Amino acid sequence: MIRARRICVTAVAVLVALAGSPGPAQAERSHESGLLSATGGSPLPPGWRIDGEGGARELVWRAPKAVPMGDARVEFRTGDRLLGVPKPARDGRTFRLALGETRPKQLTGLQVTAAGRRLDAAADDSHRSGSRGARMPAQASANGVDPGKPGSYRTVTGEYDLDPVRLPGFDTSVEMTAEVVAPRGATGSRPLALFLHGRHDTCYKPGSEDDVTGDWPCADGYQPIPSYLGYLRDQQLLASQGYVTVSISANGINAQDWEAEDGGAQARSSLVRQHLARWADWAAHRSSAPAVVREAAKADLSHVLLVGHSRGGEGVNRATMDSLYPPPAAEDGYRGPVRWKVRGTVLIGPTIFGQNPVADVPSVTLLPGCDGDVSDLQGEDFVDGTRGISRGTALHSAVYMVGANHNYFNSEWTPGEAVAPARDDFGTDPEQPDPVCTPGAATRLTAAQQHKAGATYIAAAARLFLAGDDRVRPLLDGSGKRAPSADPARVLTHAVGGRRSGGFLPDGGARVTGARLCSAIDPDPAVACLDPEALGSSPHFASWETEQETGRSAVDLKWSQPGTAARITPAKPLSLRGSQKLALRVFVPPNTTGTKFDVSVTDSSNRRVRLGSVQVDGLPGSANTASYWAQELRVPLSAATRAGLDLRHVKSLELTPRSQSGRAWLMDAWGWAPGTLAVKAAALPRVDVGRTIVKEGDSGTRTYRIPVEISGHGSGQVRVYVLDPDSGRAENRLVTVRSGSDAIDVPVEVKGDTVYGDDAEHDIAVKAVHNAVVGKHRGGLTVENDDPEPVITLSPVADRVTEGETLTWRLSVDAPTAVDIWQPARVLPATEGAELSTKDVDPQWLKDWSGDVPDPERPLSDAHLWVWLNIPPGSTSVDFVVPTVRDQVAEPTESMRLALTDNNAEPLPDRPVLTGTALDKP
After folding, report:
1. What is the pLDDT of residues 369-395, one digit of tens each?
2. Given this model, what pLDDT does residue 23 score?
3. What gap in Å lies between CA 801 and CA 917, rounded to an integer?
4. How far is 418 from 637, CA to CA, in rounded Å?
5. What is the DSSP letter of 846?
6. Terminal-to-terminal C-alpha distance of the chain
């Protein structure tokens, strides 16, 4: 069996391609040789192997037990480098990734991660904080309006089940099933809130404790898991307050999204818009609506709130984008008119693989402090990622809920409430309980407490975005108010947008003195904002597609005595005119207390004014939480006004530590005023990266271009990263894009040959920088090998020797290849006469190949000798040698049998089994 392929492909580097100058860069072609055994001699960790069918080389990891189906993307990494997203097998344990041009020797430091959490190793407890270190944040004062209180409307509840729809890229149709909860008897049209659940198991066997699958449709004897019914309490609260609600099922997408390059974001968007289109039809023609819709209040499609949990969060974000900036028709599962207006989104523990939030539609993102699924809290990018993108008037709020996990926002994912098997996604180790998130800890919420708090903040978003009630804004925008209905949950918030102005941002040419300008994503610890050995992680620094990013920075302050100011000077002075306060987003290490700063500003005339002081305590955190999260701290600007400071031209911001020692990070600072502004989406260009698949060909050189569609209106800027297929490193450049242009022009030269090799993927990733949106953020050119597999044979070289000599077989291919060829072979029991034993071969050889020792003496076939032989690129053979040892014992003639095998160590039925014989020394 063949284990590797390679194609000779030349990718034109991004800086050359985008600048328009020639100069293709040749891919590295090294020729290391070596042997890979299944055990002791393997460069791969336990549980890993190189595998493949039909010549397609794959890296395979098999987990010791099933990995629960969740929303975080399972990723293979080598250190900080993302190798790719593997495809899961139906057993829930096996994950496969096509390796392309990655060489086995490059597979060092292999890791399996999901949202930054290791799946292939236990958590590192060496930095775990003690339980006394986790402190519950102080309870905030109550807000004047509590959106968690039920309203006065009676409600109607029911389901509709329409014909399934076909979505691009999916073989199986997707259901159009939904649960409606709406006010009964309400006059006029009422705003519509649509809920979309996340990625979860799709089917279960009634009566079983853990028999769940990811199939669709469900097999005989199994029932669908009704994830869409998990938000009934949230729907009932909203319906009692006068909102029409609908929660839609997406099991058909969950069962197939592993095939989608974007994790199913576009498919979920299509499904959401398919349902909205039906509601628009029913609003216009009530008689055509399902019974429950006719019974409910009429929906007002000009006021829509989209609520998405986990991958559903990314899905409703894409649906919002697609409603404003249409996607490429070939990728879209809804091509009708947009007859609705999305006024806001609520994103619950969301994924955002593309880091492509919609800047001009308000949002609230719930971040669960004990999320064990999307554990890096990457949804913070729905706030951070909107800065500088567009007009900046839409409010984007992050709501950090201490002690909440991922699953309990959905009752159908909650043990004791769900009809199907369910679990606490955070998990717990009885021998090393987490001080923050173990059930029963003072900082951990129960399922009922969490769900009630979640419903309250969903209702707050509805009231602000749909009803325009500014009285609930202090619950969402960092003002430090609480909703009593959410008690006893401790909830902290921060925000960007709204009526904020100015903006001290570490990016964009800011100069920093007295502190360090650091990078959110960088493999160099001296450059990165957060040390890899730090306790836990930061949602602000969640990883994306590359091991290094440009334009994601923070200010890192570290001091051993008070008094040394950190100064941030933007590229040009900022205006804080019209603002009441300066709002800073700052985080400190978890579990720390009493960090204090003086805050000062200086205008263009060098007048400096101390505005006041702020104090911040760290969030409860452990090695397993993403608790390096920025809190919003505000100081009045009244001192600057009294001193005659020119707030129209503020040139620098200073933070002066007043605590004895400490560490802090500044994300940004803004002029703040109460209220929100009318939001209108800007006309922007949209970028979508496609994928083209081509054959290598037998001769000549052809140039292809990575398909990129730029649609929409106007011009903007994006950053394009071209990923090297060998090293995974990326080169990047800022590119100005305009609708219909070919501004992102990345050519790839493909050289045809007749040498067997790898498929190769030449990918780019794109991120919006200013006045642009990005839909499908990653794609590229896949070059398929079209040469036949070489024929592999195993033949004897020296198969009859005297003890003390070496048995030798030769693994050969009929023609050289451009890649490593890996073929497993196994020592089988002898069928006749005596078998060579573990003491008849060199002990070091035995240890190298099987990890075993000679004692106790036993047949060689019992020593787990299943080995992988490697023929390096350009070679046609490799020898497998078995050094025998001479002893003083008179023995009969002994033998061993060797066979080529499949991936499961089973001998290939169409290949001979070879025998080697060792004669006793006369």
Report:
1. 999 999 999 999 999 999 999 999 999
2. 29
3. 6
4. 51
5. H
6. 40
DSSP letters of 66-119? Answer: PPPP-SSPEEEEETTEEEE-PEEPTTSSEEEEE-TT--GGG--SEEEEETTEES
406, 567 in Cβ contact below 8 A? Answer: no
Is residue 226 reached through a cis peptide bond, with omega within 30 degrees of 0 on the bond before it? no
Contact (CB, 8 A) for 603 and 611? no
Listed range (7-11, 83-87, 289-293, 843-847) with the worst mean pLDDT: 7-11
Residue 619 near residue 492, CB atoms below 8 Å: yes
Sign of torsion, CA 214 216 217 223? Answer: positive
Encode pLDDT of 436-461 as tens digits. 999 999 999 999 999 999 999 999 99
- The whole-angstrom separation of Cα 62 and Cα 64 is 7
With tokens 């992102």, the residue in question is 744
Give per-residue burial for 628-650: e unless 16+ CB within 10 Å, then b: bbbbbbbbebebbeeeebbbeeb
What are the residues whose beta carbons fall under 8 Å from the beta carbon of 588, sequence distance 6 or more? 595, 616, 617, 618, 662, 663, 664, 665
Examine residue 590 and say whether the peptide bond preceding it is cis (omega within 30 degrees of 0): no
Query: How long a stretch of residues is the chain?
Result: 922
CA neighbor of 378 nearest in space, from 404, 393, 357: 357
Number of C-beta neighbours around residue 19 at 10 A: 10
In Å, what is the CA distance from 155 to each residue of 150, 183, 235, 240, 244? 11, 4, 10, 6, 9
Cβ neighbours around 816 below 10 Å, total:
15
3-class SS letters over 421-452: CCCCCCCCCCCCCCCCCCCCCCCCCCHHHHHH
Across the beta sheet with 56-62, what order do the strands follow? 48-53, 56-62, 94-98, 87-88
Token output for 276: 């909205």
Residue-wise pLDDT tens digits, 663-713: 999 999 999 999 999 999 999 999 999 999 999 999 999 999 999 999 999
Burial of 207 (0-12, 13-18, 19+ CB in 10 A): exposed
Q: In angstroms, rounded to a whole number, what is the distance separating the alpha carbons of residues 315 and 295?
A: 29
